[in-house]
């Protein structure tokens, strides 16, 4: 998993409440268990017309936001079914951080496991960030995970909370497999001891 330390980039405003996982990645894209290639399906029904052409009004189809790595979204982001394809699609598209007032629990947990930082802020702070994000190419935000701050284009700063263990994992690029491999020496020692003590097992 890629490390998350500091991220600076154009933030895309998505002021829609209750964006569910089917809106993030529709069901027809769930046939794969690969984490790559899902970026094409991200927000598919909002991004594309039935003939496959882009909807010019959708934020990620606009020139200033095509390469956004940050989303500033409405309340209750990631609700709906518990598909891990949702953070996979966001990550494959290039989104590394989503800022909202609230997230669905399963989606929130899945983000951390896939290298995405979901940040909860107050409604007042979200309004400020949404305004910043509406400035197009000038909507540059800097998210510093170590200091737990979001800096806006005007130099203002917003602090956010994050669980210390999850912070450690993101800063060091550790998913569940990485955490297990970090204990490889202890696991190997246990296996040798167990094999010596119970060779029949």
Give an account of the 3D structure.
32% of the residues are buried. The chain is of the alpha/beta class. A seven-stranded mixed beta sheet has the order 4-3-2-1-5-6-7. Strand 2, helix 3 (85-93) and strand 3 form a beta-alpha-beta unit. The model has no long low-confidence stretch (mean pLDDT 93). The chain has one domain (6-172): Alpha-Beta Barrel (Aconitase, domain 4), CATH 3.20.19. The chain has eight helices and seven strands, in the order βααβαβαβαβββααα. It has helices spanning 21-24, 44-47, 85-93, 105-113, 123-133, 164-172, 176-181, 184-197; strands at 6-14, 70-73, 97-100, 117-120, 140-144, 149-151, 157-159. 33% of the residues lie in helices and 16% in strands.
Defining key terms:
single chain, 201 residues, alpha/beta, Aconitase, domain 4, seven-stranded mixed β-sheet, globular
The end-to-end span amounts to: 35 Å
Written as H for each helix and E for each strand, in order along the chain, the element string is EHHEHEHEHEEEHHH
CATH C-level category:
Alpha Beta
Number of E-type strands: 7
Percent of residues in helices: 25-40%
């Amino acid at each position: 998993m890629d490390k998350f330390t500091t991220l600076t980039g154009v933030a895309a405003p998505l002021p829609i409440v209750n964006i569910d996982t089917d809106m993030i990645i529709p069901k027809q894209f769930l046939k794969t268990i690969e984490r790559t290639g899902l970026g094409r399906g991200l927000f598919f029904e909002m991004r594309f017309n039935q003939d496959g052409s882009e909807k010019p009004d959708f934020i990620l189809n606009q020139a200033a936001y095509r390469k956004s790595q940050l989303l500033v979204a409405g309340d209750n982001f990631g609700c709906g079914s518990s598909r891990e394809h949702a953070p996979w699609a966001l990550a494959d598209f290039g989104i590394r951080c989503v800022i909202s007032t609230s997230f669905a629990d399963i989606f929130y947990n899945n983000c951390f496991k896939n290298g995405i930082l979901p940040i909860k802020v107050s409604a007042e702070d979200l309004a400020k960030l949404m305004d910043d994000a509406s400035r197009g190419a000038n909507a540059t935000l800097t998210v510093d995970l170590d200091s737990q701050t979001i800096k806006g284009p005007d130099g203002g700063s917003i602090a956010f909370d994050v669980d210390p263990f999850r912070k450690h994992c993101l800063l060091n690029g550790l998913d569940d497999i990485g955490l297990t491999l970090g204990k490889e020496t202890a696991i190997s020692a246990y296996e040798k001891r167990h094999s010596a003590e119970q060779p029949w097992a």
